[in-house]
Write a structure and sequence with these properties.
Blueprint (H helix, E strand, L loop, with lengths): L5 E5 L16 H13 L3 E3 L28 H6 L5 H5 L12 H16 L4 H13 L2 H14 L10 H4 L1 H4 L7 H27 L3 E7 L7 H4 L16 E5 L9 E6 L3 H6 L3 H13 L2 E5 L6 E6 L9 E4 L2 H11 L5 E3 L7 H10 L3 E4 H4 L17 E4 L8 H7 L2 H11 L14 H12 L4 E5 H5 L23 H6 L2 H10 L9
Parallel strand pairs: 1-2, 1-12, 2-3, 3-6, 6-9, 10-11, 11-12
Antiparallel strand pairs: 4-5, 4-7, 7-8
Length: 505
């Protein structure tokens, strides 16, 4: 895996066609897998499956382990006899099929799941107990969610003392037992549905690439239940240091993310057990794991918690190979992709070499007329993953429209585009195809493009605009759109550029 030439599509569950306001696990996911197979793709990349925060970002979640219940298919609950057809109909969405309505889906799916929970059978209960035994993280997660409900959704450090301290809460679970049992049921249903989809993909020769943010949210079970493993004052429950990145070309203040920093010294003492457990769950959920902000394992930007910007931070040494030696002990052939984008030093380069993980290239980052960027396809090495664009990028057509004239001219010259219709979009967009082919020709073992770029969509179809908190993560599409893709074209380029080798040995 990742050693043979292959190709994939980035397309998150939330973006899939669905009558329920957001994509779900079901026939449309299987239909997409069938289409991937038909086009000769070998990878399907998704964003983190974790529950989202109020901004709908899958990169800021109350749990690094749990799955997002919005993706649960109501039809499955009906087929198993847990709800009736009227309950399924109550989840139907009458709004735009091109927008993921998280608020609608959350309200409807939660109501439906609570009704389903009341109808579980003894056999299902037995399966739930088995699931909880095999996934010990779910016990803490369910308790956390039950306490959060009891506290009106407030962040855990504002809870009453019997709940806010994990050690105290686990001794007083009686009042939360029923609510916690419900949240365990939700996770059981989520993973049961997902593993059916993943098995279907694997049977078709498609490997799933999942995504793992390196940091966790402050308001998460991961911090609440593992406080000593973070740089947090255990008396005040306030972080001492938070994560971010320093000022650079794109931001004079840097980026202040606010995530709590790991206490790597304490994590080392128990063999990085929390991380090993996290990776175990991720590698069971996906076939390949992309670790976001990989560079922080080499060195990370640490900012005082009371700072207003990231300017006042400083570089700290990460755990480096001491950590990954433990990873390789647990998972000798761990299929991991290192997100190594942005500015970094020799320590990151060295860590990549030592781990052997493939890094990332993004062609949009290479279109600088004044440099021979490592992101240009001709500079790619086999041990890399080459992207037309990621979830944070503009679509390639949107980029061409918004680039300055010098950058656009260089890009068009580089891809060999000679016409004057570079701005034409749609399924047969000539400029999009030229960019895709440039990436596909690269030496990179794996090439990835977003669903939006398959369709030649413009910037209005972007998944995320970093730094802009509103209206992200809402891109969604329809069955008609999926069926309108030029399947023969993608099968052709996957064939001629030799990206159809079987992914599973």
């Amino acid at each position: 895996m990742l050693k043979k030439r292959g190709a994939g599509v980035l397309f998150h569950i939330s973006s899939m066609p669905s009558p329920y306001g957001i994509g779900v696990f079901g026939k449309n996911a299987k239909n997409f897998i069938d289409k991937l197979c038909e086009m000769g793709f070998t990878y399907w990349q998704v964003l983190p499956f974790n529950p989202t925060d109020n901004s709908n970002s899958p990169y800021c979640s109350p749990s690094a382990f749990a799955g997002n219940y919005l993706f649960i298919n109501p039809e499955y609950l009906c087929e198993t006899g847990l709800i009736g057809e009227a309950d399924v109909k109550a989840n139907l969405y009458e709004g735009s099929p091109y927008t993921a309505d998280y608020e609608f889906a959350a309200e409807k799916r939660l109501t439906t799941l609570k009704k389903a929970f009341l109808n579980i059978t003894d056999s299902i209960l037995k399966e739930i107990k088995k699931f909880e035994t095999e996934n010990p993280w779910v016990t803490d997660y369910s308790l956390f969610m039950a306490a959060k409900e009891a506290e009106g959704g407030k962040p855990w450090w504002q809870w009453n003392k019997s709940f806010s301290h994990y050690s105290t809460c686990v001794q007083n679970t009686a009042s939360l037992a029923d609510a916690a049992a419900f949240w365990t049921f939700v996770q059981y249903i989520f993973f049961k549905q997902w593993h059916e989809i993943k098995e279907y993909a694997n049977e078709k020769g498609i490997a799933v690439i999942g995504d793992m943010p390196i940091y966790v949210a402050m308001d998460s079970v991961d911090v609440w239940a593992n406080l000593p493993q973070f740089l947090i004052d255990e008396k005040t429950l306030k972080p001492e240091k938070v994560a971010g990145v320093p000022p650079d070309y794109f931001s004079e203040d840097g980026q202040l993310w606010g995530n709590p920093i790991y206490d790597w010294k304490k994590m080392k003492k128990d063999g990085y057990s929390w991380w090993i457990s996290r990776l175990k769950t991720a590698l069971e959920t996906y076939d390949v794991v992309r670790i976001d902000h990989f560079r922080a394992f080499a060195s990370y930007w640490e900012v005082p918690a009371d700072a207003e910007t990231a300017k006042t931070g400083e570089w700290k040494s990460g755990p480096k190979m001491d950590f990954f030696s433990k990873v390789f002990e647990a998972f000798p052939d761990a299929p991991i992709i290192a997100e190594d984008l942005g500015s970094f030093g020799e320590d990151v380069v060295q860590l990549l070499e030592e781990t052997g993980f493939p890094g990332m290239k993004v062609v949009q980052f290479g279109f600088d007329p004044n440099s021979d960027s490592s992101h240009l396809p001709h500079n790619a090495v086999p041990n890399s993953i080459n992207y037309v664009g990621t979830h944070d990028n503009n679509t390639i057509l949107g980029w061409l429209w918004e680039a300055d004239e010098e950058e656009r001219k260089f890009a068009l010259d580089y891809i060999g585009f000679t016409g004057d219709n570079w701005g034409d979009g749609g399924y047969y967009s000539p400029s999009c195809r030229k960019v895709i082919e440039a990436v596909w020709k690269s030496a990179s073992n794996v090439a990835i493009l977003s669903f939006q770029d398959m369709c030649g969509f413009g910037s209005d179809a972007r998944m995320n605009r970093p730094g802009i908190p509103e209206e992200n993560w809402r891109f969604r599409t329809t069955e008609d759109t999926l069926n309108s893709i030029d399947f023969s074209y993608f099968r052709h380029i996957n064939s001629i550029f030799r990206r159809m080798y079987p992914v599973f040995d």
